Amino acid sequence: MRKIYLFVVGLLLTASLFLPNTFAQNSTQWELPPGATARFGKGWVRDIEFSPFSEQLAVATTIGVWIYDVRTGEEQVLFSGIMGGANAVSYSPGGLILAAAHWDQTVRLWDINTGNRRPLSTFTGHTGEIHAVTFSPDGSMLASGSADNTIRVWDVQAEELMAILPYRNPIKTIDFSPDSQMIAGGSEDGTIQVWDAGIGDRIYEFDEHTDAVWEIDFSPDGRILISASLDGTIQLWDLVAPGGRLTEPTQHNTPFYAVDFSQDGHNFVTSGADREVRVWNAHTRELTSTLEGHKDVVPTVELSPDGATLASGSLDGTVRLWDMRLFRGRLTLAGHTGGVKALTYTEDNRILACGTGLDNKLRLWDASTGTQLSKLNDHRGLTQAVAFSKDGKTLASGGSENGTIFLSNVSRTIENGEYFGDDEDNLIATLTGNPHGITALALSPAETILASGGVDGRIYLLDVQRRAELQILRGAQSAITALTFVFDGNHLFSGEEDGTVRRWDTLTYQEVWNYRGSFSAITALSFSKTGRFLAIGDKVGKIQLFDFDAEAENREIRIFTRHTRQITALIFSWNSDTLVSGSEDGTVLLWNTDEIISQANQE
Predict the structure, then answer these.
(1) Rounded Cα–Cα distance for residues 320 and 333 (Å)
(2) In what order do the strands lie in the sheet with 543-547?
(3) Which of 255, 459, 507, 547 is the right S-S partner for 473, CB 3.0 to 4.6 Å?
(4) Distance (Å, rounded) from C-alpha 85 to C-alpha 152?
């Protein structure tokens, strides 16, 4: 598939935090950084593609690229490192090389057979995020589409740039024609352009979509181009002169995200926001089959070259493999889920996680089972800042420009991974916090005070029961980007966009301490229940422990994580021997604090 998906959902975890050693042999624990005892989650899905002989499935995620065995569903390889996550992948025609578009604005070629962690080649030159990558069918060219409004075409053997195809807006999807003579690109502005891949001349431009084109695909005979758009239509374009739309578009009441032709040209598959995968007759445009089973939006689909298997990725955290002969599910690959917004322990030592999806609705997950529990529909649009109460029963979310905050009761019965209760969340109260845009939230342990930070650097303290303002804390020099209460509720830590951390007395409303480390914007804070450690996470994925022990040899204990995106949530276990970090990259890492301190003292 040649596309990018902003696959933002709540984090899917697969086991209890208190059993990290049981995962020592699990593939998700590959390449753990020093001091980390376990990893949960495999990163959220951006793209999927079958190998040419249908035996492998490559999954581009926010931590790298996973290679799966299609027959067994087992992980075979993980390509990850300093280049960050991958937005898109493409197999070479022979299936020996995989191209991946990485977050450092490079395209890297990986050797599939050896699993070598060093790339064979690296292509550079884009000045924006690369959204799509694809090999030409003859293997001679590699194309990449970017947010810098260009498609770059590379000579694979010479490793040289052949052409730059300019566009008016960011490129979302690209594809070569089967004879490698044409290359097409779809953009955020809803237009599709088709070029001569050899000389770079534009052949066609189609502009009848009214929203972003999320994916395009050539038919096997090269005569038709099909496109999926957020405007809720699938459109087929005639590439035989003079060119144009073949038929009236396939209409839908929700956005289409993905489309793919079968290799024999008889069918195409689609998926979108309605959670269903549809198989269509390419000749009659009639619906052949509807595959149901995903519990959330399905932004990515891919048919295997042999036509036997269909892969689909969903915001429910799964990639499903479907048998195309029987039109039923065959395998489910779990753990590919979205960025963390908030984490909390429940009273029975389970963990709940919260995050957002493409529809900007919050989702609640049971960490111990990896099951999506519910969508919190009332929180739509209020997802900039999210915080759990200490007991995990209350969720606060905000982010609107007028300072609106929702408090909801999310405590329900969880038995064997099933969530019992009303599907909708129970709204407790609507409060008004920082009116200049809410960027951070924190509930006091007793749930009596809600702290709301904003872009103006002010912190509003709100009385939850009276729904009234208690005080405004002033003194920060930049936007408030993280908040956490001390376990007694009498002190509050705040983190700022300029990297400053401050401690406030919530009884006197005075600043009592501040610290400026070598941070970018602070994005997460947590104070241990033993009163010793303050964990600080920042925008580039770095974590630091600040040790308040008077006899500590090294107060500033640095952890260099393998998170590829900003730290969004930090929590300590009850005895502070484990620190849990959640990130926008869709993973959670568990850190042994004693081991981290020991390593720091040896340096």
Answers:
(1) 6
(2) 522-527, 533-538, 543-547, 556-559
(3) 459
(4) 20
CA 529 to chain centre: 30
Written as six digits, the tokens of 54 are 């249908």
The candidate with the shortest Cα–Cα distance to 145, out of 345, 1, 347, 303, is 1
Residue 284: partners with Cβ closer than 8 Å, 6 or more residues away: none
Q: Please state whether the peptide bond connecting residue 242 to the residue before it is cis, i.e. omega within 30 degrees of 0.
A: yes
pLDDT for position 23: 32
Q: CB of 339 within 8 A of CB of 46?
A: no
User: Residue 508: left (phi > 0), alpha (psi -120 to 50), or beta?
Assistant: alpha
pLDDT digits (tens, 9 = 90+) for 72-94: 999 999 998 888 899 999 999 99
What pLDDT is recorded for position 371?
A: 65
- Name residues whose C-beta falls within 8 Å of residue 118's C-beta, 6 or more positions apart in sequence: none
Q: Which two tokens stand for residue 527?
A: 């104070």
Identity of residue 84: G
Residue ranges, the chain, pLDDT below 70: 1-26, 114-116, 241-242, 357-359, 367-372, 380, 412-425, 550-554, 603
SS (H, E, C) 18-72: CCHHHHCCCHHHCCCCCCEEEEECCCCEEEEEECCCCCEEEEEECCEEEEEECCC
Asked if residues 387 and 441 have their Cβ atoms less than 8 Å apart, the reply is: yes
Longest CA–CA span in the chain (Å) reads: 80
Residue type for position 50: F
Measured distance CA(313)–CA(321) in Å, rounded:
9
